[in-house]
Design brief:
Blueprint: H1 8-11, H2 16-36, H3 42-51, H4 56-66, H5 69-81, H6 94-130, E1 135-140, E2 143-149, H7 150-175, E3 177-178, H8 192-202, E4 205-206, H9 217-244, E5 251-252, H10 272-293, H11 304-332, E6 335-336, H12 338-345, H13 354-363, H14 368-385, H15 389-395, H16 397-400, H17 405-410, H18 421-429
Parallel strand pairs: 3-4
Antiparallel strand pairs: 1-2, 5-6
Helix pairs in contact: 2-3, 2-6, 2-8, 4-5, 6-7, 6-11, 7-9, 7-18, 9-10, 9-11, 10-11, 13-14
Length: 431
């Protein structure tokens, strides 16, 4: 999974070299803190920092025997440090290293995702202003409703991604906590000052209270937030898929030279990018469920969460990074067909202006019930007999008893529906 959906910046975060490097940083920071408190000699820390290293292959080899990754890591580190290794991991438990380093890794990943979100918002904004006044059919239940603009659709997406940016920044803050509080969180064998020192060096905040582990509601919030972001991307993708349908064809994924849509039908140009994004969103939502299942652990800790996080940590962040970058390219290069939008806008022979006619009849003195009945009976002629809505209204004596010809024609003004586009844009973009 990671190799297929990868950007180097994100996948490097989850490579063993980077993970073990974080472990080593935590161990050295802890030694520095102990030295400042007089628990170990300062000269020993200097030697530890100069010599400390590890060998990934050696760690794997040792782990095959000891069946414990942190012990295997510490053994490899000891090979480099020598006698001073007795000061490494002093008073710590494995989860002090694992959970604090996991927070560091998730923080790195979140910062990349936040940058991705900002780039996606920038692309959406460009397309929104490009098509700010490009009229198209607004639909509810998949049925023609009233006119909108394609720019408004993009503004809606921008506004949603702005909320996702806020959510992701909040999730980053929630996950940026570490703990070095010992086997059950009581600091029995390690001073809270060590935790404070290490967390500050690592760019984290000490958890106010922990057990042997950081509490997994933090992680659940992080993965659930990613699931919301992925679901927004799916929402945009589903809209594009609908707009690309042959019967609609108002927008279309860019089809590059040499690209092929079907092994059997050479004419096909399928929305494969959008469909791919839809599928990947399902995976990330599944990871969010797994993260929530990790919240209830036995007593001060069990290991049931560990196997889950080894998968969902890399996979969810790599996939969301991939999805965001694919969405950026998809929207940036989306082919828009204003002429087809206008064609579809006129497809229903004026029915889309029915609410305006209804309101004008009410303003002209008809009861709402009467106005609704008059509009609906003429609308049904369009549905069932292919009539023109405006012509039917003009020929209906009961309608013209309330409205003049000019008033009826005025109800079919497209600009009426778009008069507040500028207001909406100012709300969304602030300019």
């Amino acid at each position: 999974m990671i190799e297929r959906y990868s950007r180097p910046e994100m996948t490097r975060i989850w490579e063993p070299e980077n993970r073990y490097r974080k472990w080593l940083e935590i161990e050295i920071y802890a030694c520095e803190a102990h030295a400042e408190m007089g628990r170990i000699p300062k000269e020993a820390v200097a030697r530890i920092r100069a010599k400390a290293n590890f060998d990934v292959d050696r760690i794997d080899e040792i782990e095959r025997t000891v069946k414990h990754d942190v012990i295997a890591f510490l053994t490899s580190v000891a090979d480099y440090i020598g006698d001073d290794s007795r000061f490494v991991h002093l008073g710590l438990t494995s989860s002090d290293v694992l959970d604090t380093s996991f927070a560091m890794l998730l923080k790195e990943a979140a910062e990349l995702i936040i940058a991705d979100i900002k780039r996606l918002m920038a692309v959406i904004k460009v397309r929104a202003y490009e098509h700010k006044m490009t009229p198209m059919m607004g639909r509810s239940h998949g049925i023609h409703a009233e006119p909108v603009t394609f720019g408004l659709k993009m503004a809606l997406w921008y506004d949603e991604m702005a909320r996702n940016l806020t959510r992701m920044e909040s999730a980053l803050a929630t996950i940026s906590y570490g703990k070095l509080s010992g086997a059950v969180g009581t600091f029995a064998n390690i001073d809270p000052q060590v935790e404070a020192y290490v967390c500050k060096k690592a760019g984290l905040t000490p958890a106010p209270c922990s057990t042997q582990v950081l509490q997994r509601d933090r992680h659940a919030e992080f993965f659930t937030t990613m699931a919301i972001v992925a679901s927004s991307i799916e929402k945009f993708s589903v809209e594009i898929r609908h707009l690309q349908r042959t019967e609609v064809l108002e927008a279309e994924e860019f089809f590059s030279k040499g690209q092929k849509g079907s092994s059997a039908m050479p004419h096909k140009r399928n929305p494969v990018l959008s469909e791919n994004l839809t599928g990947l969103a399902r995976l990330i939502r599944g990871y969010a469920v797994s993260a929530m299942e990790n919240i209830p652990l036995w007593h001060e800790r069990d290991i049931s969460h560990s196997s889950v996080e080894r998968i969902i940590g890399p996979d969810a962040t790599v996939l969301l990074d991939f999805m965001l970058n694919r969405a950026i390219g998809l929207i940036e290069h989306l082919v828009v067909y204003p002429e087809n939008m206008l064609r579809n806008l006129n497809q229903m022979r004026g029915l889309i202006f029915s609410q305006r006619v209804l309101l004008k009849l009410a303003e002209g003195g008809a009861s709402r019930e009467k106005a609704y009945s008059l509009v609906q009976r003429n609308a049904m002629k369009v549905w069932e007999e292919g009539k023109d809505f405006q012509e039917e209204l003009l020929a209906d004596a009961e309608v013209t008893a309330f409205l003049s010809e000019a008033e009826i024609k005025e109800a079919f003004d497209l600009a009426y529906h778009l008069k507040h586009v500028d207001t909406i844009f100012k709300r969304v973009f602030g300019v």
